[in-house]
Amino acid sequence: MSKQNLHNKKEFQERRKQLRKNLTPAEAYLWTQLKSRQLDNRRFTKQHSIGHFIVDFYCASEKLIIELDGEVHNKPEAQEYDRKRSSYLENQGYKVIRFENNMVFDFLSSVLKEIRDNFNS
Q1: How far is CA 55 from CA 12, 67, 106, 121, in A?
Q2: 8-state DSSP, 72
Q3: CATH number of the structural domain spanning residue 77
């Protein structure tokens, strides 16, 4: 499968749309900082699919994926799934960074700094 065919596959279109309409509070809050090229003029998309995964936020120019994790991600089976998912995405050439939901609310400036620190230029 080519890299181009990995993105926003048709079979995930409805699920992406559903997720975009129902962002978690942390996703909605971070999106206010990422949308419309507000962060260093980088274009982010929300609920973007790559392969058979839908990622929370994606910046194509940086090949950067941002994932926000709620309480469910603390369970061992969810952690294993997240590890496999991140490994797959990283093997496709993407950088994956994760934040706990509370970090977005409590330490937004630090979250934005870490995102910027992962920009290539």
Answers
A1: 12, 7, 22, 23
A2: G
A3: 3.40.960.10
* pTM recorded for the entire structure: 0.90
- Structural domain of 7: 3-114
Number of domains in the chain: 1
The per-residue pLDDT for range 21-73, each reduced to its tens digit, is: 999 999 999 999 999 999 999 999 999 999 999 999 999 999 999 999 987 77
- Contact (Cβ atoms closer than 8 angstroms) between residue 61 and residue 29: no
Dihedral, 14, 98, 116, 36 alpha carbons, nearest 10: 20
One-letter amino acid at 92 equals Q
Does residue 121 lie in a domain region?
no
**How does pLDDT run across 85-101, given as a tens digit for each residue?**
999 999 999 999 999 99
